[in-house]
Specification:
- Helices cover about 20% and strands about 35% of the residues.
- With about 300 residues, it is α+β, with helices and mostly antiparallel strands.
- The strands form four sheets. Strands 10, 11, 12, 13, 15, 16 and 17 form a seven-stranded antiparallel beta sheet that branches. A five-stranded parallel beta sheet has the order 2-1-3-6-7, with helices on both faces. Strands 8-9-14 form a three-stranded antiparallel beta sheet, with no helix packed on it.
- Strand 15 (about 270-280) and strand 16 form a beta hairpin.
- Helix 1 (about 15-30) runs parallel beside helix 5 (about 130-145).
- The chain starts with a strand and ends with a strand.
């Protein structure tokens, strides 16, 4: 799983910028990253689906501020403004707390736009033809120092736990089987904070009946806390569904609630699509569907990804 670098780089069609940006994109990939290169798309649909979504998914930002129009100063001297669109992308990346590598062409007004607001320490450059190698060298330094990683992601994922279930003796001395969903934090140094698990909907695949559920937290394995921390490169599991080990089985969910109104229910043996989500304060929301099949006995139970 490769980390994603969002390349925010001017691409003036009347200059060599497009070719330079493409070369930088290849250099970033040569360092072991995936790379999305932002293009100038001023439509609302393009901004929402291409720019904003890609920035939200990115692990790192490479920001390159090329010279734009000349500005005359009161002193009679002249200077250039930077790229408007790139500064907008830098603003969004800053809000999302995405680590950034910032380069600025000599002659651009320093600390202008978002660079001034962030007090960013930009690396200057003058020769555009050397810029791809400069970017590659700086990325190599970040990798060697451990500041950036190319094989981890700024994301959570939901998978069937390994092993998928655990048998535990209850206070009434009967055995109960718990099927777990594992939540993986793929970031190498950032913990996922205030993580809450939810069962959003149940779809009976036999009858096509869909039940949209009230929002309620699902119990995490090994704790009664509704919200948990998932450490860097770590995993925590929540209780997807469980049942007593006797026939006929009656699978149930374990929401954290004191009201029966919030208990999700199945219609009886069959196939169900269970849509789970995990919400984290600093990782956003991750969703995934799992197919749960069961008959009369524990041996009939199967769980798989949608």
């Amino acid at each position: 799983m490769k980390a994603i670098v969002f390349l925010s780089c001017g691409q003036n069609k009347n200059s060599e910028e497009i070719q330079i940006a493409e070369t930088i994109r290849h250099k970033i990939r040569d360092q072991g990253f995936d790379c999305y290169m932002a293009t100038t798309d001023q439509t609302l649909l393009g901004l929402r689906e291409n720019i904003f979504k890609r920035l939200e998914d990115a692990d790192y930002l490479v920001f390159i501020d090329f010279r734009r129009e000349e500005i005359k100063l009161n002193s009679g001297d002249s200077i250039h403004r930077g790229s408007l669109f790139s500064n907008q992308e830098l603003a969004i990346a800053s809000f999302l707390e995405i680590p950034a590598l910032i380069l600025q062409e000599n002659g651009v007004k320093q600390l202008d736009g978002m660079l001034g607001a962030l007090q960013a320490n930009a690396k200057g450059f003058s020769d555009r033809s050397c810029l791809p190698d400069v970017v590659s060298g700086l990325l190599g330094e970040k990798l060697r120092s451990g500041e950036w990683q190319n094989q981890t992601r700024n994301m959570l994922s939901l998978e069937i736990a390994d092993p998928p279930y655990t048998d535990a003796r209850q206070t009434n001395h009967f055995m109960r089987r718990f099927y777990h969903i594992a939540v993986h934090n793929h970031h190498h140094k950032k913990a996922a904070l205030y993580c809450y698990a939810h069962l959003d909907a149940i779809l009976n695949l036999g009858t096509n009946k869909k039940t949209q559920l009230k929002t309620i937290e699902i119990k995490w394995a090994g704790t009664t806390l509704s919200g948990v921390r998932i450490g860097p490169n770590s995993v925590r599991e929540f209780d997807a569904i469980n049942f007593y080990l006797h026939s006929p089985i009656q699978p149930i969910f374990w929401p954290i609630t004191d009201s029966p109104e919030y208990y999700p229910r199945l219609d009886g043996s069959g196939n169900y699509l269970l849509n789970f989500s995990v919400v984290s304060q600093n990782f956003g929301t991750t969703t995934k569907g799992f197919v749960f099949e069961y008959g009369a006995s524990p041996e009939t139970v199967k769980i798989s990804t949608d």
